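User: quick one - fold this with pyridoxal-5'-phosphate bound?
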Amino acid sequence: MTIHSSEILLDKKALQNNIRFLKNYLSSDVLLSSVVKGNAYGHGIEDFVPLAEECGVNHFSVYSADEAIKVEMVTSTTSTVMIMGYVDPSQLRWCIENMVEFFVFDFNRLYSTLEVAKELKKKAIIHIEVETGMNRTGFEREDLEEVARVLNENKEHLFFKGLCTHYAGAERIGNFDRFEQQKAIYLEVLDWFKNKNLIPEQRHTCCSAAAIRMPEMQMDMVRIGILQYGFWPSREVFIEYIKDFKTKDGPLERVISWKSRVMSLKNVSSGEYIGYGKTYLAQQPLKIALLPIGYAHGFTRGLSNVGRALVKGHRVPVVGMVNMNCIAINVTGIDDVQSGDEVILIGKQGDVEISVSAFGELSTQLNYELLTRLPHDIPRTIKK
Ligand SMILES: *Cc1c(COP(=O)(O)O)cnc(C)c1O
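Assistant: Sure. Structure tokens for the protein plus pyridoxal-5'-phosphate:
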């Protein structure tokens, strides 16, 4: 039996709370698509998806067909799966046969989808993604005439389910002009399609930050990742939310917690460096605890001398560089720390709490990055 050096827990009540909050927050006819790319932001697709279904979610968005296959294996047949990114041409057949929906953002995919759908005599359910300014994927303005022609002439093979786009950084107010422009372009394209008699069933543009910031753009569906897991896309979005609702507590609860244990303890004399190189110099005699997790387990090197952990109800700093399989934390002054003691890397211990973003005034992307790098092979334990 494998004994892992850390444990990951998922809290069902927290997820229930978050889904309830989101459903209340969204206008009543807006469909919530749960974004579970990146192994459900590290929560684990196999465990998270059935849990989300139990909380009333029945639409899942993934990045790739590979992820869609994983979701399909654990969802009930009534749930919808939508792929927002990579589909290898050889996987189109599987998607169409299984009524897995997918984004179409260039002619390669459009024409090959049409070909496979004809061959299978089964309709492909597609979401046309339009370029509105992010410059990632999406049809350009000058492509639309041809897209409309293909859609109009092949209605028996291609079901125009959605028209979508994605905002380039809705979590930052500094990008305000950019997403205002994207919004305007999207609405214009939507009208343009309508004039061609092409009316998508689902109009969708919003990720978490956009759904909070631009409620008027929630339209038929929102694609919510980070919020459902109980994290805010950025501090700005959080502040904007609590300001409007005149509360200082957020409505979200974190679903995940990540724990490890003290592997060993050591006393370090004043004037000694800790770990590789010279990044941390002990200014006084220190007691450090070594934990058997490192960047190989997703504890990013960016947290060297920056990360925090909880031990015995105290919030303590990481000292020195994050190693491949090991970190040191400063437990000086905490008397009764022993080998084997629980250490929280993400989550709560008593009254103290570590959110991923607590590490990362550095970068709001850290939430996303740290979560998605959590080891896939650690079994997730579900707390009901
Ligand atoms: C990741 C992603 C989302 C969800 O983003 P969050 O900020 O986690 O809500 C929505 N749409 C697309 C296209 C994405 O790639």
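One thing worth noting: The longest strand covers residues 342-349.
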